[in-house]
Design goal:
With 272 residues, this protein is of the alpha/beta class. 48% of the residues lie in helices and 15% in strands.
């Protein structure tokens, strides 16, 4: 592609973002007002449903305004709707990871495990943390009790719990992963022994959006790959994190979607 064509494409992308900025602002205002209203009703399940729909809307806005695409491994798509208790394990490179996984699992109303500090002061992310996350306190005994309650809850309801065993984003040592911490995952797994463990490798979220204080980048493709799906009977609880880490590392070293053949393992993200 010539330099002139590249310049024209970039200019058109910038013009599209500028033209759609009022729509983005209006969408965010409507989301905020709607969320404030349902929070005032103090019905947690209703709040969680609205938040899941907002996440779906935000992913749609990223696609329309910035050309961000989400590609999901069809093997993972098949597992999204499979009944039964699930613990999803993923790498963590951007706040967008939460929106992507919530968008994928929105029909199951998932719970996240997250670090303290996210539940205040961040648009979109903080309401998600308050109503859809088990927020770790930094105190081991309290965290253990919280993870046990979360595990028991998803086991009783056939729900989904999502955890990032790295403990924080890997943006400072990107693209390498941080070592997975086994404690949180093992506590969650022990409380929900019937849960299948699904390791999800996320690629492209760091490139698409690095955080709340920056704008998304245009024309980035995010990939969600099924790295592993195992029964807990195959591993001791504290070995799960090591197995998931190895599987995700392996999945991230495979070729990207753009280099795969048309008959490869990729499909568009479900939009229903």
């Amino acid at each position: 592609m010539s330099a002139t064509a590249t310049l024209v494409i970039r200019w058109l992308g910038t013009a599209r973002v500028i033209a759609l900025t009022p729509l983005v602002i209006l969408f965010m205002l409507v989301c905020d007002l709607r969320l404030r209203f349902v929070i005032a009703l103090k019905k947690e399940q209703f709040i969680r449903t609205v938040l899941a729909r907002h996440a779906h809307g935000l992913m749609w806005m990223l696609k329309v305004c910035w050309g961000v695409k989400l590609k999901v491994d069809p093997r993972l798509t098949a597992l999204l709707s499979a009944p039964g208790c699930t613990i999803a394990v993923a790498n963590h490179r951007s706040p967008l990871d939460i929106l992507v996984l919530l968008h994928m699992y929105r029909a199951r109303s998932p719970y996240f495990v997250c670090r303290p500090g996210l539940e205040q002061g961040l648009p979109v992310i903080s309401p998600l943390a308050r109503y859809m996350c088990a927020v770790l306190s930094g105190t081991a005994s309290k965290n253990n009790a919280l993870l046990r309650r979360l595990g028991q809850n998803i086991a009783a309801t056939g729900g989904v719990g999502i955890i990032f065993p790295e403990g924080r984003k890997t943006q400072h040592n990107y693209p390498d992963l941080l070592p997975f911490q086994p404690g949180g995952l093992s506590r969650l797994a022990e409380a929900a022994p019937s849960a299948r463990v699904v390791a999800v490798a996320l690629r492209g979220t760091h490139e698409a959006w690095r955080g709340p204080w920056g704008l998304p980048r245009s024309s980035v493709t995010i990939e969600a790959t099924l790295a592993a799906c195992v029964s807990q009977e195959q591993f001791e609880p504290r070995q799960l994190a090591r197995h998931c880490e190895a599987a995700i590392r392996s999945a991230l070293t495979r070729p990207t979607e753009s280099t795969r053949t048309p008959e490869g393992l990729w499909t568009s993200s479900p939009t229903h």
